[in-house]
Write a structure and sequence with these properties.
The complex is a heterodimer of chains A (about 260) and B (about 300).
Chain A: E1 4-15, E2 18-24, H1 28-32, E3 39-43, E4 52-60, E5 67-72, H2 77-84, E6 90-97, E7 109-114, H3 118-127, E8 132-137, H4 146-152, E9 155-160, E10 167-168, H5 171-181, E11 187-191, H6 194-207, E12 210-214, E13 230-232, E14 238-240, E15 247-249
Parallel strand pairs in A: 7-8, 7-11, 8-9, 9-10, 11-12
Antiparallel strand pairs in A: 1-2, 1-6, 2-5, 3-4, 3-6, 4-5, 12-15, 13-14
Chain B: E1 6-8, E2 11-13, E3 17-19, E4 41-43, E5 60-63, E6 66-69, H1 78-89, E7 95-100, H2 105-118, E8 122-126, H3 137-141, H4 143-156, E9 162-165, H5 173-182, E10 187-190, E11 194-196, E12 199-200, E13 205-206, E14 213-216, H6 221-234, E15 239-242, H7 248-257, E16 261-264, H8 267-270, H9 274-288
Parallel strand pairs in B: 3-4, 3-16, 4-7, 7-8, 8-9, 9-10, 10-15, 15-16
Antiparallel strand pairs in B: 1-2, 5-6, 6-14, 11-14, 12-13
Helix pairs in contact in B: 1-2, 2-4, 4-5, 5-6, 6-7, 7-9
The chains are: A alpha/beta (about 260), B alpha/beta (about 300).
């Protein structure tokens, strides 16, 4: 049986514009972990009818309570309310939801995170052995968690749109550079804005490397019943980010939609 | 405790709470949260004759105490429902109500043939989906067309009761209710969603890709109560009331206005157990008022 849980906020910090929280999640991780890249569906406050889907950054089985960390940006009324919640308060959380990146832990992965797509890649970095991370954002303040990636990954590269740190340009240029130099990657895993994912998927296809992407869409129920979070597939069908995803094979996705 | 059993157009239910079509899929997901046998009934996701992929995303927008949706009847088609989903739903001790939408009266007829042969407990005829271009809402806004579709459904539904789902997007809902009653409908359900729109002021784009959508959630409850009351005063067939129900008191309002049973929908998205909460809240109200049966609430409003 699935359950919704009251999860206490035990840690909170700002990371640039983003908010970092650690939640005590009961047996959530023990009972519903499928792989890094799942999400939690959070009731942000009483005034918001809909829950908000937030990617899991890191999660761990722990005693007496499992721990789940999330990082989110304030995008609207829901996340603004969530950002006001303080350590010690309880959140109503459904999860872990969605499929995640379900691969064996010994796969060698090239991780690509853009903007608020960076935090879920940290979960991947800590789960898979010997990963390389490519982190991108508009400017230096959007590149977060780099010290944590340094610990978990063999190599970390950075790209910013304004060149304030790392490569001046988009992440897909670094993906191309890395794939030219290193032919030993089993998978590319990517999370970020759709144009970024499209470009990364294109480079992966050119080099013949399997690519999994984490998609984002406005959600309702978060469990696959209401069908609002549609993702257009290359075969003309529409799947659902909450239940069939959020992780899809890049070849499945209709990038022209 | 009061007797919670109700009878909706010959369909005996263990309690008056059903889940609304389009909010519950075919039950598989919510069955991971609670036993579907707890429910009085399940209005399954709206079916069409052929599979539909629905509208492009975004399909949902939040509004003050409500939501807008523009799913557009994504569904696997009536045959896939009968083969793959109905056997699953049949495992549970609850009533199964199939919901259908057609592009033509003939399509409604074909679907009723298939569903009555397959054995559902009731057919809810959707003449009021605001999110599809052909048919849909047009049938629900013209009494003559609503009657034509109802007659066709009745002709092909055999012994299965036919309930027609009414649109609130009309000047006078009682005209449509009377028309479908005259055409043989066994019950009516109301309200479907109210057409609405939300605009992102920064991008100047509507939040929904289809620009407009159907509004539901607590904000629409008073509209639903008013329309159920009007329809109850205009027809003698039973009513399944819905629109913004999230607690027992909401359900009791719809029943006092004239509903025999109530549906819970949008509130499930915030709370997967909402239908159970509504059922228990309704029982508590009936108990507090000393009723022998919850059905005594139906039509019990004392208007000024």
């Amino acid at each position: 049986m699935k359950v919704e849980r009251k999860c206490k906020i035990v840690e909170k910090a700002l990371m640039g514009d983003a908010v970092y929280m650690v939640l005590e999640a009961g047996d959530m991780v023990r009972t519903s972990f499928k792989g890094p890249g799942q999400f939690v569906h959070i009731k942000c406050g009483d005034a918001q009818l809909l829950r908000r889907p937030i990617s899991v950054c890191l999660c761990s089985q722990d005693q007496p309570s499992d721990l789940v960390s999330i990082v989110f940006e304030v995008r609207g009324e829901g996340t603004a309310r969530l950002a006001q919640r303080e350590v010690g308060e309880e959140l109503d959380v459904l999860g872990l939801a969605g499929n995640g990146f379900q691969l064996e832990q010994d796969k060698r992965c090239l991780l690509v995170g853009g903007g608020i797509g960076i935090p879920p890649m940290l979960g991947c970095a800590s789960y898979f052995d010997r990963s390389t991370a490519i982190l991108g954002g508009r400017s230096q303040d959007k590149i977060i968690l780099t010290d944590r990636f340094e610990v978990c990954c063999d190599k970390v590269m950075i790209a910013t749109d304004d060149g304030s740190v790392g490569h001046h340009g988009f992440v897909d240029a670094l993906v191309r550079q890395e794939l030219e130099q290193d032919k030993e990657y089993d998978y590319i895993l990517a999370c970020g804005p759709k144009p970024m994912l499209r470009n990364v998927a294109k480079v992966a296809d050119e080099f013949g490397v399997a690519c999994l992407v984490s998609m984002e869409e406005r959600m309702g129920c978060g469990i696959g019943a209401c069908l609002v979070c549609a993702c257009d597939m290359a075969d003309g069908s529409r799947k659902h980010v909450c239940k069939n995803g959020p992780v899809f094979d890049a070849k499945e996705v209709d990038w022209n939609a | 405790m009061p007797d919670m059993k109700v009878n909706l157009a010959g369909m005996a239910m263990k309690n008056p709470v059903v889940v609304a079509s389009g909010t519950f899929g075919f039950g598989r997901e919510y069955n991971e949260f609670f036993d579907l046998s707890e429910l009085g009934g399940i209005c399954a996701k709206g079916l069409t004759l052929h599979r539909r992929e629905g509208n492009p995303a975004p399909r949902i927008a939040e509004t003050p105490m409500g939501i807008l949706n523009s799913v557009g009847l994504q569904n696997p088609g009536v045959d896939a429902f009968v083969e793959e989903e109905l056997p699953f739903l049949r495992q549970f001790d609850t009533k199964v109500i199939a919901n259908i939408s057609g592009n033509t009266p003939e399509e409604y007829g074909i679907m009723c043939d298939k569903l009555s042969a397959a054995g559902v407990d009731m057919i809810e005829v959707n003449i009021s989906c605001p999110n599809v271009k052909a048919g849909g809402l047009a049938y629900g806004t013209r009494p003559d067309l609503a009657a034509e579709v109802t007659e066709m459904a009745k002709k092909h539904a055999g012994n299965v009761p036919v309930m027609v789902k009414l649109s609130p997007n009309v000047t006078d809902i009682t005209e449509i209710a009377k028309a479908v009653e005259g055409a043989g409908a066994d019950a009516v359900s109301l309200i479907n969603t109210i057409r609405g729109m939300r605009i992102d002021v920064n991008t100047r784009r509507p939040v929904l890709k289809m620009n407009t959508g159907g509004m539901s959630g607590p904000a629409v409850l008073p509209v639903a109560v008013r329309m159920v009351w009007e329809v109850a005063n205009a027809v003698s067939i039973p009513i399944l009331g819905m629109g913004g129900v999230s607690k027992g008191e909401d359900a009791a309002q719809l029943m006092l206005a004239g509903a025999t049973a109530v549906a819970v929908g949008t509130s499930l998205f915030a709370d997967p157990y909402a239908a159970i909460t509504v059922r228990d809240g309704l029982a508590a109200i009936a108990d507090k008022q000393g009723l022998a049966s919850v059905s005594e609430l139906t039509g019990g409003v004392k208007p000024w």
